Amino acid sequence: MTDQKPPNQRQGPNQRHGIVKRAAPIALILVGLALFFALGLNRYFSLDALRDNRDALRIWVEASPFLAMGIFLLIYAGAVAISFPGASILTVFGGFLFGLWPGVPIIVTAATLGATVIFLASKTALNGALGNRASGFVTRMEKGFREDELSYMFLLRLVPVFPFWAINIAAGVIGVSLRNFLIGTSIGIIPGTFVYASIGHAANKAFDAGKEISLAGLLFKPETLLPIIGLAILATIPIVLKRFSKQAAHMDDQSS
Q1: Which of 76, 92, 145, 168 falls between 20 and 30 A from 107, CA-CA?
Q2: In a 10 Å sphere around its CB, with 0-12 CB exposed, 13-18 middle and 19+ buried, how is residue 183 labelled?
Q3: Under a CB-based contact definition with an 8 Å cutoff, are residues 76 and 111 in contact?
Q4: Within a domain: residue 40?
Q5: Is the separation of the CB atoms in 80 and 185 below 8 Å?
Q6: Helical packing angle, 103-126 and 164-174, nearest 10°
Q7: In this structure, are residues 122 and 169 in contact, taking their beta carbons and an 8 Å threshold?
Q8: What is the residue range of 75's domain?
């Protein structure tokens, strides 16, 4: 006897083509990330590289400011799109090259564009693929999104508990709406962007004085951390209120 799969389990050419088509964006992103490291481009995304090349970079920006802004935006968006785990370093570069204005708007735009690329790719290829097998990080995120999608998206961006790239992918897998992803990302990353861009903006004086730049050192200072914590508390208020309202409604139903 030969084993035959039921008709609903057979994969015809059209179905296989559909799977390949859905997986293509993720495959291209993985290839891009592999090439990025294979070519050694990651060595240019460091504070040492910024220190060693700061004079040439400043001359380039002063000579062609708009061209420099455009190229930087594309590089930043591309790095985020391939999920390169070094967005904070690029944010420092942006602050160094362009200051807080127009540096912060450029960085926020680039980060949002790059994040949207990987979000849409993962949503196309992986949305619903995990099903009941999802656990851990994705499960916790899914529970939070059910309570209040926009507030939870904003909270994840505001407080970097999870890596930026991981949130992009997980949000696509869970099926977050594009609208809430864009709003939560573009607004939620502003405080952190301002902090890291400020480091870059002050980097030239620090380098000239022979001082070391520490990303964590500034991020965890009370004057930096406390406002972010305050914004995080504000972001949790809608989630908490919605949970209490659901509990109250449930108790009312039970009493009646």
Answers
A1: 145
A2: middle
A3: yes
A4: yes
A5: no
A6: 40
A7: yes
A8: 20-251
Write out pLDDT tens, residues 63-106: 999 999 999 999 999 999 998 887 788 998 999 999 989 999 99
Domains of the chain: total: 1
Amino acid at 220: F
The more confidently predicted of residues 174 and 59 is 59
Q: Are 47 and 92 in contact (CB under 8 A)?
A: yes
Residue 15 in any domain: the answer is no
Specify the length of the chain in residues: 256
Peptide bond into 102 cis (omega under 30): yes
Q: Does 192 map to a domain?
A: yes
pTM (global) more than 0.85: no
Angle at CA of residue 232, ends 45 and 170, nearest 5°: 55
Scan for tokens 């799969």, then name that residue.
5
Query: Does the structure show a pLDDT above 70 at 8?
Result: no
Nearest Cα to Cα of residue 92 among 186, 188, 206: 206
